[in-house]
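Usage example:
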Amino acid sequence: MKPNLFFLNDDAKILHLMEQGDEEALVMIYRQNRKAILSFVTRNSGSEDDAEDVLQESVIILWERVRSGRFEQSAKLSTFLFAVAKNVWSRKRMRKLREPASEFDNDQFDSYERSALDEMIDSERSEHIANAMEQLGEPCRTLLTLYYWEEHSQEEIAAEMGFANAATVKSKKYTCKKMLEKILKESGMYVGLAQS
Amino acid sequence: MSEQGKKYWTDDPELVERYILGKLSPEEMERLDREIAGCEPCKAIIAREAEIAAGIRRHGRDRMKADLRKKLRRDRASQFYSYQYIGLAAAVVVIAIGIGLYQIWFSDLVAPKQFQHPQIIITSKPDTSGNIREQQNDAERDSKQIAEGSAVQKKSERREGIRIERQSASQKFAERTVEPTVSGNAPAKNDHPSVADGGSVAVSEALPENHSAAVWLIGNVVMIGERAGSSMEKSSRSSSSGEMTAVKKSSDGKVIVRHRAVKELPSDRAAASRASGQIETLLERNDDKLVLTLFDDSVNESDVQQAVIESLSDDLLVVALPNQRITYHLPSGWNQSSRSR
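Running the assembly step on the lines above writes:
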């Protein structure tokens, strides 16, 4: 039986739900911030569809951060989300207009820093790899997603997926990566990857 | 990976993954960066691992985005349905309120409205004994009988002069309400003379569309002076006339004053002893008119012709005859209804 928890504010509740892996948190924060981000994107040459896309991506980036334990709350969630949305829209607009990414107003919201991996995610190659992941069966797809995307430790994955221990996860992960590389090779997508 | 036999940290896949995912301290990261600075194959390993990690992340994001879109669609749909349910509930409430208001204004549920429409009329058999005749018009009678649902019965009733006597809940209510107001003078069910008890006056209930009503009142007489011809003289003249039909309408046609001899009173009304200076009076309402029938032998046709309605308010009616003034306390609501119509 779940204990009844009381939260001081919506942010605390959303973060708790995210930590528990409850995707309802995404809907909650989406609803809370939709108006502001819709307004921002449409005021900056974007359409309503662009705004929806930006908001969804921003919400998911927040989810990634929280799930991987890399989120440190120093402001309201809406503040963080707005900063992420600005960054995401800046990159999307850059790609649309084929012009260098320009920063929006340098204000308090520009605290969101992208990692090297974040920079690579939007690349064409990562899209190929994402497609190859669709062809990868279970449990490899879930295992690799938990490890690389949600950044769970091998111990956590062992507990979540019912493997004996972390060593089993490590071995399974190695096998799964090889399978993914094989799919990429067979589809000709691996050619572009750097060879060891 | 080795370059000219030298071992590099990129040969450890676990360390590479942790480096890629940023799970090392900044100092460690800096140290590892320095170590592979001159090792191109090491950089290639890092780049390949990073591409795979980025691709897996993208896959995770894409799947979650698809899930989120589904959730939002479902959420919007359920919101739409909840709005529909709210709208439906609101419509039901509005309709219920509407029906309630309709009933308040037009049905039997509310006392004042019913009181303004007591469904009582006075009818009689064809005159064989010189009693009161208040004939309903044929159209009214026909419609009432059609409502009874039998044409055969209608013919039979016409032939025999029998009235269908009905009493609805609304009439009962009206009578209950009237009685205390007029101090027992209202024509309660048992007070009504009927064919059965020998009188020719029957109190029957009209159909709801007939807005007629009657109530017995006691008029208090104040003499305001003698005139030529004594009251005795008038009395004898009146009594001998058998049936007085003098009618006086008020200037606005709202009040009609009639006169009848005392002997025409229904037996139970006649039996009641009245103090001198009081006149048994039947007040009827027929649509928007009040009909006042005075049962008094001291009043004659000429008096009625000269009658003046001195005052007509919600609860008071004063009729001035040439030598007397008769005051009536009207039951609550009687005059209002004629005004509202």
